[in-house]
Amino acid sequence: MPAQRPDRPLVAVGLSGGVDSAVAALVLKKTGHEVVGLTMKTWDGGVAIPDEGRSGCYGPGEARDVESAAAVARKLGIPHHTVEVAREYRGAVLDYFRSEYLAGRTPNPCVRCNQRIKFGALIRQARIDGIRFDLFATGHYARLTRGEGCSPLVGGGRVVLRRAMDRRKDQSYFLSGLSQAQLSRMLLPLGELSKNQVRSLAREAGWDDLASRPESQNFIESKSYEALFRPGDNRPGPIHDLAGKVVGEHKGITRYTVGQRRRVGLGGRSGPLYIVGVDAAANAVTVGPKEALLAESFTAREVRWAAASPPEGSPRLLVQVRSGHPGAEGVVTPVRGGREAAVAFDEPQPALTPGQTAVFYEGDAVFGSGVIGSGVARSGVRR
Fold first, then answer.
1. Crossing angle (nearest 10°) for helices 19-30 and 62-76
2. Could you report the per-residue pLDDT of 291-314, keeping only the tens digit for each?
3. What structural domains does the chain harbor?
4. 73-91: b or e for each residue (b if 16 or more CB lie within 10 Å)?
C-alpha cells in the first residue's frame, strides 16, 4: 500500500461487513488515503425477529457483521471502531416505519436511515466518541460531482449526486434525501465501478468469501417487519371495490400496500385484484383491477432540492417513484414555497404509493426528492 500523502484527508469508511464497503476502503487505501473503519450498531434486541443467517443493517446477526467488518479492517491494517446508534435507529427508522404504516402509507426505511443514521447519527456519535476523521465514505453505488458546470439546473458551487456508472446497481435513489452539508463531506469510491469489478477487486485482496456472499437484506423488506407492530395495531376491517361495495375483510392495514396482489384474500374473482388504496381513518382498503393503479399525477411533500432554492417555472425531469421504477418523464412544479412539488407525468404510471420516495433526475443528476403524498390522481379510484 502507498504511504499516506499529506494532502490526502483522513477518511472514515462505514464498514458493514460486506463486500462493497470493504472494497470502498481498499480503493481509498490504494489511492493513498489514511482510512479508519466505522461500523454502526443498531441492534438492541428489542424486536423479536428470527436470525435467518443473512447480513443486514438490523437484526440478531449483527455480531457476525461486526466481526466481518473488523476482519476487513485487520486485513487492510486500519483502525476499526463500533459506534452505538441503536437508540437513534429505533426512533428515526423503526418508530417512523411503524407510524407510517399505521397512517396507511408505505415508507422507504433505507432512504430514512441514510439521511438520519448512516450519514447523520453515526458520524455525530463517532465524533463524540473521539474518533478523528475529515470525510466519510461508504460502499454505495453513486457518484458525486463538485464545482462549476456540474449541472445546468442545479448551478455551480454545489455538490451534485449522480447515478452510478453501473446503472443496474445505482443507489442514488436511496441517497437522495441527503443535504448539501452531508454531500460535501462524502466520498463514494465505487461510483465508477461495476459490481463485477468490485467482486474482482475483493478476490484479488483475498476476500473470496465476501465476493461470493449473497447481497445483504434489510429485515424490513422481509416478513419479519410484522414484529414491529403491537397486538392492537392490526384490526380487521372492510375491503371495498371501486364502487365502494364491501367485498371482503382485511386483517389489518399494516399488511397491505398499494400495488399489492398477493395475500389480498379475494379468490374466485373474474380477474386479479390489486390494492389501490389504504384508508387508515376508516381502517379500510380498496381493491381494483391492474389498470386502476395507473396515476397521472401526485404531490410530493418534504421536498429537498439539490439547488440552493426551488427552480423557477416547471422543469421537465425524469421522476423515479420507487427503487425498482425505471423513471418516467414529467413536469415538476414547486408549490408552497418549494416545500412541496406537483408532478404531472407525460404517461400514467402504475402503483404510485403514498409514503414512498420520489426522486427527480436531470439526466443522471439528482435534482430533488420528496415523499409521495396522499393526493395521487389515480384513474377510477374515489378520493
1. 20
2. 999 999 999 999 999 998 999 999
3. 10-139+189-223 (3.40.50.620), 234-288 (2.30.30.280), 294-378 (2.40.30.10)
4. beebebebbbbebbebbbe
Angle value at C-alpha 349, between 345 and 352, nearest 5 degrees: 105
| Nearest alpha-carbon partner for 143 in 193, 94, 178, 73 | 193
Average pLDDT over residues 82-99: 97
pLDDT tens-digit map of 8-39 = 799 999 999 999 999 999 999 999 999 999 99
**Residue 78 and residue 69: Cα distance in Å, rounded?**
11
pLDDT tens digit sequence for 65-75 = 999 999 999 99
Contact by Cβ (8 Å): 49, 166: no
Residue with cell 420516495: 357
DSSP 57: S
Reported pTM: 0.93
Q: How many helices (H) and strands (E) does the chain have?
A: 10, 18
Joined together, the cell numbers standing for residue 253 give 392495514
